[in-house]
UniProtKB/TrEMBL annotation:
<dbReference type="InterPro" id="IPR034609">
    <property type="entry name" value="Syce2"/>
</dbReference>
<protein>
    <recommendedName>
        <fullName>Synaptonemal complex central element protein 2</fullName>
    </recommendedName>
</protein>
<feature type="region of interest" description="Disordered">
    <location>
        <begin position="1"/>
        <end position="23"/>
    </location>
</feature>
């Protein structure tokens, strides 16, 4: 049985076949070196591609984050613009309401002042009439006094 296994080709490179040379030939070494070089080049290329792929992924994620941030800023700016517009409308509306309210109060006060001025004018006119009547009465009394003085002087 031992003999049967000796004739079969080896499946492992680490165990050379019995009966043949125990060292590698020049062709085997060259093939092995070429395989190692090709393998290391392939590994380096794979590492480069992997690094490039990682960099591309990071770049894409960074770009997506920048786009999200810019989108958020745009949305925030639109919200602020909308808020400012609504605030301006509300302030304008409130100013208009205050203006109308002040005008109504001004009109009311103006009407009240007009009524009071009319009343004061009537009072002043009545005072003027009374002053004129008092002047006439004073003159009449002065005439009567003069008449009485004349009569008292003539009666002795």
């Amino acid at each position: 049985m031992d003999f049967f296994f000796d004739d079969l080709p080896s499946t492992s490179m680490s165990t050379p076949k019995k009966g043949k040379k125990d060292s590698l030939t020049m062709d085997d070494a060259a093939c092995d070196l070429s395989r190692n070089t090709s393998s290391s080049v392939s590994l380096t290329e794979i590492e480069r591609q992997h690094s490039s792929s990682c960099i591309d992924d990071i770049s894409k994620k960074a770009q997506e984050m920048v786009e999200k941030i810019n989108h958020g800023r745009t949305r925030d700016q639109e919200m602020m613009d909308s808020f400012q517009e609504k605030l301006t409308e509300k302030v304008t509306e409130m100013c208009q309401l205050m203006k109308e309210h002040m005008y109504i109060i001004y009109e009311k006060n103006s009407n009240e002042i007009q009524v009071k001025l009319q009343e004061l004018s009537e009072v002043l006119e009545n005072c003027s009439k009374l002053n004129h009547e008092l002047l006439e009465a004073s003159q009449a009394l002065a005439c009567l006094r003069d008449g009485l003085d004349i009569n008292q002087r003539s009666e002795p």
